[in-house]
UniProtKB/TrEMBL annotation:
Family as reported in the entry's similarity comment: Belongs to the UPF0065 (bug) family.
Signal peptide as annotated in the record: 1-26
Organism: Ottowia pentelensis
Keywords for this protein: Signal
Source organism phylogeny: Bacteria, Pseudomonadati, Pseudomonadota, Betaproteobacteria, Burkholderiales
Protein's recorded name: Bug family tripartite tricarboxylate transporter substrate binding protein
Gene3D superfamilies linked: Bordetella uptake gene, domain 1, Periplasmic binding protein-like II
Pfam families: TctC
Length: 332
C-alpha cells in the first residue's frame, strides 16, 4: 500500500508540473527562425505569396521567417519534409488542396494522409482562368470546346498542363475532358513557372490555373491568351476575358483554390495558437492586403482555429468526391 500511495503522489506531481512545462515551451515559441515551406520553385505564384507573407509574419512573431522552396511530385516532397521534421511549429507548410489532398490520391509513392496536417489559417483565395498558347484558335469557352472536339477527331487531342499528377490543375483538366466528352492529353510539370514557359513557347495548348499580374502581363504582351475565367463574374485583372458561365459548353465549370498554412497535426496546441495569432495579425497588414489584391488574390477572412480545421476537413471530403467522380486513381 505505501508503494501504491507513493506512486500515486508521483503521478499527481508530474501532472501538476506538466501544464507549466508545456506553457513554458509555448512561451518560448518561436525561439529561432520559422521556415515557410513552399512546395514549388521560386518565381511562381505560391512563392510570391510566401514572400509577401514572410515580412509581416516576422514582425507578428518577433522572429525571423525564411521562405524555402522545394518543388516536385505535386508538392509532396516538401510536404513529406515537413512531416519528417519535429512537431514544433518551426517548419510551416504553405499549401492548397493540390498537395495535401489530391497528390496522395494520385501518386503511389506518397504515404502521408491529408489528415496528417492541420490548417492553422487560410491566407488567400485565388480566382482561376484557362490560358492558351497564342496560336490556339479559341477566344472563349465555347470556341475552346469546339476546337478540342475537332482536334480529338483528328487524332491530335488537346494538351493541358498541370503542376503534377494529382494536382488540382490535373483534376480540372481531367474534369473538363470528362464534362466535354472529349479526350485530352495531360502534360505534368514541376511547377507553374515551367508550365507557363512551355505555354508561351507553344509546346502545350492550355493551362487551367490561378493567375496574377505576371500572367496578365503575358496576355497583354500577346505571349499567350486568356480564354475564360472560372469565376461567375469577369475578373478585375482580366476584365475583357469572358467567364465560363457566359458559355454553353462550360457554364458550370467554375472553380477557385485557397492557400493556407499547415503544421503537423500533433504540433502542440499552444504553439499552434501562437502561429495562428501571428497569421491573423498578418491578415490586417495593409501592404500585404494590397500586394495580394494586386496579384488577383482575395484575402481570406479571419478564421478561428476550429473554423480553419473544419474548412480543411470539408475540403478533404469535397476533393476526394470529385477525384472519385472523374476516376482519378493512384498512378493515373
Amino acid at each position: 500500500m505505501p508503494f501504491t500511495r507513493r506512486r500515486l503522489m508521483q503521478y499527481a506531481a508530474a501532472a501538476a508540473l506538466a501544464p507549466r512545462a508545456f506553457g513554458a515551451a509555448a512561451q518560448g515559441y518561436p525561439a529561432k527562425p520559422v521556415v515557410l515551406m513552399v512546395p514549388y520553385p521560386a518565381g511562381g505564384l505560391s512563392d510570391t505569396i510566401a514572400r509577401r507573407v514572410s515580412p509581416p509574419l516576422a514582425v507578428a512573431l518577433n522572429q525571423t521567417t525564411i521562405v524555402d522552396n522545394l518543388g516536385g511530385a505535386s508538392g509532396s516532397i516538401a510536404a513529406q519534409k515537413v512531416l519528417n521534421a519535429p512537431s514544433d511549429g518551426y517548419l510551416v507548410y504553405q499549401g492548397t488542396p493540390n498537395e495535401l489532398i489530391l497528390a496522395p490520391l494520385a501518386i503511389p509513392s506518397i504515404r502521408y494522409k491529408s489528415e496528417d496536417f492541420r490548417q492553422v489559417h487560410r491566407i488567400a483565395l485565388a480566382p482561376m482562368a484557362i490560358f492558351a498558347r497564342t496560336g490556339l484558335p479559341a477566344r472563349n469557352a465555347d470556341e475552346l470546346a469546339a476546337h478540342a472536339a475537332q482536334v480529338a477527331k483528328e487524332g491530335k487531342p488537346l494538351t493541358y498542363a498541370s503542376v503534377g499528377v494529382g494536382s488540382f490543375y490535373h483534376l480540372l483538366g481531367a474534369k473538363l475532358s470528362k464534362d466535354l466528352g472529349t479526350p485530352m492529353t495531360h502534360v505534368p510539370y514541376k511547377g507553374a513557372v515551367e508550365a507557363f514557359r512551355d505555354l508561351v513557347a507553344g509546346l502545350v495548348d492550355i493551362f487551367i490555373t490561378p493567375y496574377g499580374l505576371a500572367q496578365t502581363e503575358f496576355v497583354t504582351q500577346g505571349k499567350m491568351k486568356a480564354v475564360a475565367v472560372l469565376t461567375p463574374q469577369r475578373q478585375r485583372l482580366l476584365p475583357d476575358t469572358p467567364s465560363v458561365v457566359e458559355s454553353k459548353a462550360m457554364k458550370h465549370f467554375t472553380a477557385e483554390i485557397g492557400t493556407g498554412y499547415f503544421v503537423k497535426r500533433d504540433t502542440p496546441e499552444a504553439v499552434v495558437q501562437v502561429l495562428h495569432g501571428g497569421l491573423q495579425k498578418v491578415l490586417t497588414d495593409t501592404q500585404l492586403r494590397a500586394g495580394l489584391f494586386a496579384m488577383g488574390q482575395e484575402v481570406s477572412p479571419a478564421q478561428t482555429l476550429a473554423e480553419a480545421d473544419q474548412a480543411y476537413r470539408q475540403e478533404i471530403a469535397q476533393y476526394r468526391a470529385i477525384a472519385k467522380a472523374i476516376g482519378l486513381q493512384q498512378g493515373q
